[in-house]
Amino acid sequence: MLTLSLVRHGQTHYNAQHRLQGWCDSPLTPRGLAGLRTTAAFLSGRPFTAAYVSPSGRAQATAREIMAN
Length: 69
What we know:
mainly alpha
């Protein structure tokens, strides 16, 4: 059986300013990091074989945190 988990990055500085970011690599805010840690803790009991992410820093940080748990 295959389980696919889709996760969006946490709040970024541009999100907090209601700005579109597209390809801009706006970093995660403290609130975004806290949400990421909550998501990682929720997913910690699930085994992951791989993570496929964009090259943006916010996506990379999200994947690293989730895969580390």
